[in-house]
């Protein structure tokens, strides 16, 4: 195959069946029909997926590397996901493990418009890790959320994101919420940057972006596996000035390796910051998975800008030194509930979190 | 909780831990923060998810029923999915099993604009099962695809869908492909209806719909888990005249019960026809799962129109009687590769498939 995308699957199979199973995956993810019924030699040669290698990694577990024709993908993020795992996602003996892209395809998607360095610059943090918290719970009014934002900012936090559950509900409509929070932040001395959460379809998200831009904001969050990866790709292209944070909701990561989906693909499609569940929190990712995910987001990869890894999900200020030892300075620490639990001491707790990150010895 | 959405999860857990685990899921899918840090009594009462019941279904396996506030969902399909399984999809001890919607929410989403009866009427099939095939492989030119379509139509098939891998690739761009196929079908006497596959973001899909409409077509297919469920919802609303078929690509159904995702939710958001992998084909769904899925698509449910179940994935004409015995007349049988394997006998094989469906004794 002249120009190919290489895809690695992890497959559970008997050793005697793995060759046929690997070939079936290559066919499912390309022509999806019996190959012997294809009378066009060009299609058999250039379009049908080819098994490049099969490696046993443990008894009954194999790595299958498949070459897919880049012609079948074109330039659409949704179609890339479709060709990587569309039908095979319905077969529970397979995990989508990794991809290797041709350089031209990576350049065409383009990755983050801003990336890690721009997120550092925006809050004047040259070398240290960045800090982040979340506005919640759902059900608060715009004024109450704005008050929380103000207190986080007074504690010196770098970024504040909406809880990913905040959409456009009647108790805190997007436009009213964003205006109130942006105003509260302008009234502080802080350089804190607020990242509201987009929801709905592409038109809804455009209206929300207009409201955010009107309020002077320069960053937004969305969940690519709910919004559709093509929506992420479109917003990246149409709003090049916007910083985009990706949330992992619905990433159902048990079937797609998190380092690939969140670290590589979300970055490829344009996320500047990628939120993921850190090990030892409320979610089941292992330290190895988290390390690989952060690596995938930061790695030199086809010249794309680095996306900043944002470990989250039940983190506490007490874990800051351990997390920084693990992730280093190229990370944004996101602590939500544990700061909010401080209630009337929220500003002081935030300040302590911020100080722990600033004072950490990064050498 | 005054007005609630009830969600059922299947959870793996020790009996001693299930109460805490169930409560943690209810919190994760609502406020996503420590409840004791919420000082607003209204939020604790009306917004925090509540565990309604816990039932042991097998040793170490529980059904957990959670009540979520409908206020947190609003009217967006993406946000509904987010509140049902957003963060919990990242925890591998939980499967999203089922939902019970308040009637008003079901009516607001509205379900299929056309549904099963309209798909019957369009092809003049009052009582029997419907037939469908697929245009593939990828890599064929518009003319070659149009020739296949003509031969399927001459065999008397009701519906022809694009392979879900056909997007807007250079070898068969959407507009050129759709025009060629529609023209080929107009030149036959058949009432065959062609369903092209949409891809890309909402704007791309609108452009594709314009091309399909220009070509005189009245039906389209999309994969809601790639396009985003909000895109399905939007197309349903903005193009009420269009029949919409939902494809299960990326449905990663191992973590969301297929009867819920494909049978109920795709129907709720507006799919008129739902494609799913039949048992005994290339995919791992059991007969029980398939039966439950078809039931969920057809069932009387809040007065929504029925979506027609479309079992597929490696089916053969030889299986027609068995499939009709299993699904009855309210189904569309989709056979692709097995007909295409007939090559120069494609029309005759299609005619035999069509005859088997028409001649089956439905009483």
Description:
The structure is a homodimer. Helices cover about 40% and strands about 20% of the residues of chain A. Chain A contains 15 helices and twelve strands. In chain A, α6 runs parallel beside α7 and α11 packs parallel to α12. The longest helix of chain A has 14 residues. The model of chain A has no long low-confidence stretch (mean pLDDT about 95).
Tell me the quaternary state. Answer: homodimer
Helix content of chain A: 25-40%
Strand order in space, largest sheet of chain A: 2-3-1-4
Distance between the termini of chain A: 47 Å
Query: Domains counted in the coordinates of chain A: how many?
Result: 2
A few lines on this structure:
Helices cover 40% and strands 19% of the residues of chain A. Chain A has helices spanning 18-28, 41-46, 77-85, 103-109, 115-122, 142-154, 174-186, 202-214, 224-227, 229-238, 258-269, 287-298, 320-327, 337-340, 346-359, and strands at residues 4-12, 50-58, 61-69, 94-100, 130-135, 159-162, 193-195, 219-222, 243-246, 273-277, 308-312, 332-334. In chain A, helix 6 runs parallel beside helix 7.
């Amino acid at each position: 195959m002249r120009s190919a995308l290489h895809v690695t699957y992890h497959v559970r199979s008997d050793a005697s069946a793995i060759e046929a199973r690997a070939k079936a995956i290559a066919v499912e993810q390309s022509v999806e029909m019996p190959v012997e019924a294809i009378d066009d030699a060009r299609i058999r040669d250039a379009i049908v997926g080819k098994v490049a290698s099969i490696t046993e990694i443990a008894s009954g577990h194999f790595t299958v590397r498949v070459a897919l024709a880049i012609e079948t993908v074109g330039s659409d993020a949704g179609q890339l996901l479709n060709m990587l795992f569309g039908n095979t996602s319905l077969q529970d003996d397979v995990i989508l493990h990794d991809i290797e892209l041709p350089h031209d395809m990576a350049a065409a998607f383009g990755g983050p418009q801003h990336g890690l360095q721009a997120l550092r610059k925006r809050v004047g943090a040259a070398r240290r890790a960045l800090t982040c918290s979340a506005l919640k719970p759902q059900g608060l009014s715009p004024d109450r959320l704005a008050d929380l934002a103000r207190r986080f900012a007074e504690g010196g936090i770098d970024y504040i994101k909406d809880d990913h559950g905040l959409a456009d509900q009647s108790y805190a409509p997007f436009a009213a919420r964003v205006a109130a929070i942006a105003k509260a932040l302008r009234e502080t001395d802080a350089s804190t940057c607020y990242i509201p959460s987009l929801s709905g379809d592409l038109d809804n998200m455009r209206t929300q972006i207009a409201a955010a831009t009107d309020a002077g904001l320069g960053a937004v969050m969305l969940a690519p596996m709910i919004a559709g990866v093509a929506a992420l790709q479109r917003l990246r292209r149409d709003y090049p000035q916007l910083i985009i944070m990706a949330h992992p909701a619905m990433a159902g990561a048990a079937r797609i390796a998190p380092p690939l989906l969140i670290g590589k693909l979300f970055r490829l499609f344009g996320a500047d910051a990628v939120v993921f569940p850190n090990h030892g929190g409320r979610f089941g990712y292992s330290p190895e998975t988290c390390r690989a995910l952060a690596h995938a987001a930061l790695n030199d990869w086809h010249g794309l800008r680095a996306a900043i890894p944002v470990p989250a999900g039940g983190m506490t200020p007490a874990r800051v030194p351990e997390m920084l030892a693990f992730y280093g300075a190229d990370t944004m620490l996101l602590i939500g509930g544990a700061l909010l639990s401080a209630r009337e001491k929220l500003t002081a707790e935030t300040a302590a979190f911020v100080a722990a990150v600033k004072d950490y010895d990064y050498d």
